[in-house]
């Protein structure tokens, strides 16, 4: 038995491999930029945009992690990419994670506040995601893998603020603007962790990390059903100022879109994905998930290291905390960018922890 285990370990050490690939997805000049309140054509290119893929294989199971420079990524776009990846590599579709970076000056990849998606661009990105993974698969080579966490708490901030009247406002204004003096404090936390998954050549020179010559990989997924919220009280939902306080014609059209979807599909089947690469557990959903929920996922996770990845594999809108729903602000105002019922955050939290436990090595769990 010991001989068999030793041989299996040697095989795993020989078969631990990683590869990388990237494909340019910079939209053409004139393409509509999502993330604006009106259709805004791209005037040029400051920096190119990419779909970037990392594939890691333990010799038996492989996963692909893909980052897309786009505002959101739609379910159909991911489905198309996954099907091509599964056909052209040995990576199962369920083992492909595609996350968007919320790039609001990217291409028309998804509907956002009345700015329509471009089907041709969606297809281009789906093919780019697949090509990046295929290139990473073809580039697989023996490696050592390290996992770590850095801390950077000075760059990001929670953009929602508790005001002196007790309400919460998104981006109430910078110093010197009329409402800034009414700010009490940020209305929620940030996550200062910087997760690191690093790869080096066997015996490489990069040292600040525990390098693994062998590890195992696993995946799991489930569907979490969440209802679309009822028709809102428009006046009560509208912020007095700050982000989300207008434009009213756009929000009126957005509510109609949500009403149509509610009538057609009152429950949204949300994908929750769990992946494990050695000691690193990764949980995903397609939400603009509030930081408090992401922190809860990490704190309750059974893994030594945990990432939460939002805007992944589909787009289901902002998922605020229950307090945010009563506090107000942009992220809770009904639109395709915020449509799920207030219990959605808790349901997705519980789903994330279920899949994180399912991907634990055999014999572990809690």
Give a nutshell description of this structure:
The protein is of the alpha+beta class and 366 residues long. The protein is 27% helix and 27% strand. The protein has a domain at 15-142.
Overview features:
366 residues; alpha+beta; five-stranded mixed beta sheet; four-stranded mixed beta sheet; 17 strands; disordered N terminus
Broad shape: globular
Query: How do the SSEs run, as a string of H and E?
Result: HEEEHEHEEEEEEEEHHEEEHEEHH
Content-based structural category: alpha+beta
Which percent range fits the helix content?
25-40%
Low-confidence stretches: 1-10
Total number of helices: 8
Radius of gyration: 22 Å
Total number of strands: 17
Question: For the residues shown, what is the average pLDDT?
Answer: 94
Question: Could you describe the 3D structure shown?
Answer:
The protein is an alpha+beta fold and 366 residues long. The protein has a domain at 15-142. 27% of the residues lie in helices and 27% in strands. It is built from eight helices and 17 strands. Helix 2 (75-88) packs parallel to helix 3 (119-138) and helix 6 (291-300) packs parallel to helix 8 (344-358). The longest helix has 20 residues, at 119-138. The radius of gyration is 22 Å and the shape is globular. Mean pLDDT is 94; it is low at 1-10.
